[in-house]
Amino acid sequence: MKALVHDGNGNISLQERPRPTLQLPTDAIVRVTRSTICTSDLHIMRGAVPRALPDTVLGHEFVGVVEEVGADVARFAPGDRVAVNCETFCGTCFFCQRGWVNNCEHGGWELGCRIDGCQAEFVRIPFADNAFTRIPDSVSDEDALFLGDILATGWWGARLAEIEEGSSVAVIGAGPVGLTTMMCARLANPGSIIAIECDPHRAELAKQLDLADYVIDGSAPLDEIEHAVQDLTEGRGADSVIEAAGGNATFEMAWRIARPNAVVVISAMYEHDQVLPLPSMYGKNLVFKTGGVDASGLDEVMALIESGKIDTSCLISKRYPLNDILEAYRAFEAREDDCLKVVITPWE
């Protein structure tokens, strides 16, 4: 089969790889019908994810059709259309039982990082009963494509933020994760959502789609951004802040625009260490929540897609067959033509 492989030194190539086979009774084999490229794929490609293994097929955000299941897979069968979770989790260990599936003792972020991922024609999925969300007949593959990663991240970030009805929520970044975060935050009926974004196209999109009530230019000096948020929140700062950008100054921005006793969620992935300046923060009494997405409970999110309450079609900018995935990576990384997400279709 054809698959996209990285070498651990910043290089990717389209290669011929053996079709995967079942290794454990809890495994399944999925034929990939749609996949996409995530910014974290770029982090791996650049060598910025220490736990990532070289000579691995990239990708962890996709949907497909179940081709084969192991003897212990009980909930799914060949022919089922499924969205696949970006996290591999057993469901029974100490962390899984508490919903912290990113820290599964037998998994975590594995696909496209430590085991072969989805930017291929077929992929092996461990713990298939936990990994899959069934796609209803009324939901297209592209409608469900982002469920297992960026939409799961938006859902997770909004839940962690403890958004109260009528409160103010600031979301840093209006890229794919930021936009899905706003979609999910809107479901909590906040008083206002404030988007902070330096890309004019992305900022305008957040406003046009009614995902943000206010948009602040993220390229402005940090003092101006802080004052702009205060002006929109009666001088207090945002009740909840969700940092979904992962830029050079966005961590500091996150805690500075938060009101005292706010919740600050860090859902972004950074390529460099961040500084926690405790003397400057003294007295703000902030609660920080951070880490990899705990992508569980996605049946509920799929139901929101099916009902039309969440629509991620606005994120799709370009489509490429697997044959042209190298070009897709170039266009995605360059944000060519204001690209948000690319869809990879099967090999032609």
List keywords for this structure.
single chain; 348 residues; 7-stranded mixed beta sheet; 6-stranded parallel beta sheet; 11 helices; globular
> What order do the helices and strands follow?
EEEHEEEEHEHHEHEHEHEHEHEHEHE
Instruction: Give the CA-based shape.
Output: globular
Distance between the termini: 12 Å
Fraction of helical residues: 25-40%
Please render the helix and strand layout as text.
Layout: E1 2-6, E2 12-16, E3 28-36, H1 39-45, E4 56-57, E5 62-69, E6 81-84, E7 122-125, H2 128-131, E8 132-134, H3 141-144, H4 147-160, E9 168-172, H5 176-186, E10 192-197, H6 200-208, E11 214-217, H7 222-231, E12 238-243, H8 250-257, E13 258-266, H9 278-281, E14 287-290, H10 298-306, E15 316-321, H11 325-334, E16 341-345
Parallel strand pairs: 9-10, 9-12, 10-11, 12-13, 13-14, 15-16
Antiparallel strand pairs: 1-2, 1-4, 3-5, 3-7, 3-16, 5-6, 6-8
